[in-house]
Amino acid sequence: MALQWLSLVATIWLQSINGTNSNFPAYSSHLKKILSISQLQLNNLASASDAGKLLGWISGVAARHLSLRLVLLIGSILGLVGYGVQYLFLAGHINSLSYWHVFLLTVLAGNSICWINTVCYILVIKNFPLDQQIAVGLSTSYVGLSAKIYTALVDSVNILYLVSHICDMDEIK
């Protein structure tokens, strides 16, 4: 029984850190400025994530034929590429991406959520056969925390960067 609850906690954490549905507003204004795009184009980027979710059925088909570990790995790679390249672009490590590159990365990132959620739902359903609805409800109810988790993480990294930069300046003096 402890493993059942541990799997539920693990899926809650996985969905919380992967629940990137609500993260776009956190960086969209910066994206709009860097790409010099209109509000309509920005709205289309926000819709691109949803368009990626329209292809979520592929993860369900894959879960029927592949191991859950492989489905999770595919979702992780899609998310790493989709969100990772966008992050590198926003952080200035990649100098030029076109609007359409960012659009496709957003579709890819949106689709990655489906792969990881598919694994989470299958695990919860298998581990809680008598209380499937409650367990799935609990696992998805924490998705709203993901934006706060990412914001806190970015703030922490920025603070560490500033502190290390200040320490470097003190050493120079």
List keywords for this structure.
8 helices; signal; MFS_trans_sf; membrane; Nodulin-like domain-containing protein; mainly alpha; globular
What report would you give on this structure?
It is a multi-pass membrane protein. This is Nodulin-like domain-containing protein. Keywords: Membrane, Signal, Transmembrane, Transmembrane helix. The chain is an all-alpha fold and 173 residues long. The protein has eight helices and no strands. The protein has helices at 2-18, 24-35, 39-54, 57-65, 68-90, 99-127, 132-141, 146-172. The longest helix has 29 residues, at 99-127. It starts with a helix and ends with a helix. The model has no long low-confidence stretch (mean pLDDT 83).
Give the oligomer, counting copies of the same chain as homo and different chains as hetero: single chain
Helical percentage: over 70%
Estimated share of beta-strand residues? under 5%
Strand element count: 0
Order of helices and strands: HHHHHHHH
The main pleated sheet reads as: none
**Low-confidence stretches at least 5 residues in length (pLDDT < 50)?**
none
Instruction: Please report the number of helical segments.
Output: 8
How many angstroms separate the termini? 59 Å
Shape: globular
SSE inventory with pairings:
Blueprint (H helix, E strand, L loop, with lengths): L1 H17 L5 H12 L3 H16 L2 H9 L2 H23 L8 H29 L4 H10 L4 H27 L1
Main location: membrane
Organism: Castilleja foliolosa
Protein name: Nodulin-like domain-containing protein
